[in-house]
Design a protein that fits this description.
Helix content: under 10%
Low-confidence stretches: 1-29
Mean pLDDT: 88
Largest sheet: 10 strands, antiparallel
CATH class of the largest domain: Mainly Beta
Number of helices: 2
Strand content: over 45%
Number of strands: 29
Shape: flat
Structural class: mainly beta
Number of domains: 3
CATH superfamily of the largest domain: Immunoglobulins
CATH topology of the largest domain: Immunoglobulin-like
């Protein structure tokens, strides 16, 4: 009889545990004893001169009352946006205090907020908890209370790219450490030098890299290039970086040259407006297949390469051929490489 009651009490306890789960939007709570993460903001007036200083977000981890693996995200959005547009600035298995250098935090926040300006920003900790104690349940998500702060960002250190003496483009140093990179578009035969506008230092061609007051560097072929420059060791690289559309939906079919896209430095995407036929296409780099992006659908040309809105395509290396979304016509296509996603919108 004692064994019977022990089993009965155990079953009631297990049922009580699961029936205490509650869903409130994305936040799911196992019981009243779960302690959600907390977040306290630091001073977020960031100054370039303090670039190597530390900025610490004070945090405490989730306490669900049982053993579980957890992953933590520090997220930001414009104040009042309700995290519809998220700038993610941290991801790790630790929910304790989160530390950045001023330079690093500034660089991360510039993905979502303007430089040389003060913005009102909402922050939160998102915790994804994986139940690993044999509970047989899906992941659960917890959020800290939203904290709002004024964020002042400074523009990244930059080198101006002077083409035939004209200041038209720039490359930036994400960590303000003298290592610069960016996409630059050249015409065939263009000559360029680099200017550090903060210190009025000009860089040009050197014996084995760049040199202060060196001669202009000549570009042979037209197109987009990934330009890197290191003013610490005076090295640089200039690599062709032309992303284009290829496929039987495009003017040249599956043959080269591909239909080249242009880089939008404001939002970090590649764009093209193009007439397409009712067929398929993919993205690739420098007219070759070593790097190519296609859809994540079940098969080439399948409509399930698109999400439910029939405009957005999730991408992967070597993915499937992507069908034109709405029949032949003129389209604007935007490619976000970092997000592995593209939008295909008929004009």
């Amino acid at each position: 009889m004692k064994k019977y009651y022990s089993i009965l009490f155990l079953l009631v306890g297990v049922l009580g545990f699961f029936t205490s789960c509650d869903e409130d939007g994305d936040q799911l709570v196992f019981s009243d004893n779960v302690i959600v993460p907390t977040l306290t903001l630091p001073d977020l007036t960031l100054v370039r001169a303090n670039g190597s200083n530390s900025v610490i977000f004070e945090c405490t981890p989730v306490d669900p009352g049982f053993t579980a693996s957890a992953y933590y995200y520090l997220q930001a959005c414009p104040a009042g946006d309700n995290f519809e547009t998220i700038t993610q600035i941290y991801y790790a298995e630790s929910g304790d205090n989160i530390e950045f250098t001023v330079n690093k935090l500034n660089s991360l926040l510039l993905d979502g907020f303007p430089e040389d300006a003060t913005s009102s920003v909402d922050f939160r900790i998102k915790c994804v908890l994986e139940a690993d104690a044999g509970l047989g349940v899906d992941d659960y998500v917890y959020y800290s209370e939203t904290q709002t702060g004024d964020v002042t960002l400074f523009g990244l250190l930059r080198l101006d790219v002077l083409i035939d003496g004209e200041d038209t483009q720039k490359i930036q140093s994400p960590d303000s450490d003298g290592i610069y990179e960016g996409y630059v578009k050249f015409d065939a035969g263009d000559e360029f030098t680099l200017l550090d506008p903060d210190n009025t230092i000009y860089y040009g061609s050197g014996t084995s890299g760049i040199a202060v007051d060196g001669a202009a560097i000549t570009v042979a072929d037209a197109g987009w290039y990934l330009l890197t420059a290191n003013t610490n060791d005076l090295s640089y690289t200039l690599e062709s970086y032309n992303i284009g559309l290829v496929g039987d939906a495009t003017p040249n079919g599956w043959d080269t040259p591909d239909s080249k896209m242009d880089y939008n430095s404001t939002d970090g995407t590649w764009e093209i407006t193009i007439d397409l036929t009712d067929a398929n296409f993919k993205f690739r780099l420098n007219d070759g297949w070593a790097w190519n992006l296609g859809g994540t659908g079940t098969e080439d040309g399948s409509a399930d390469n698109y999400s439910d809105d029939n405009m957005t395509v999730e991408l992967e290396q070597g993915g499937k051929n992507i069908p034109v979304s709405d029949g032949a016509g003129n389209y604007t296509i935007t490619l976000n490489i970092d997000g592995s996603v593209a939008t295909v919108v008929k004009n």
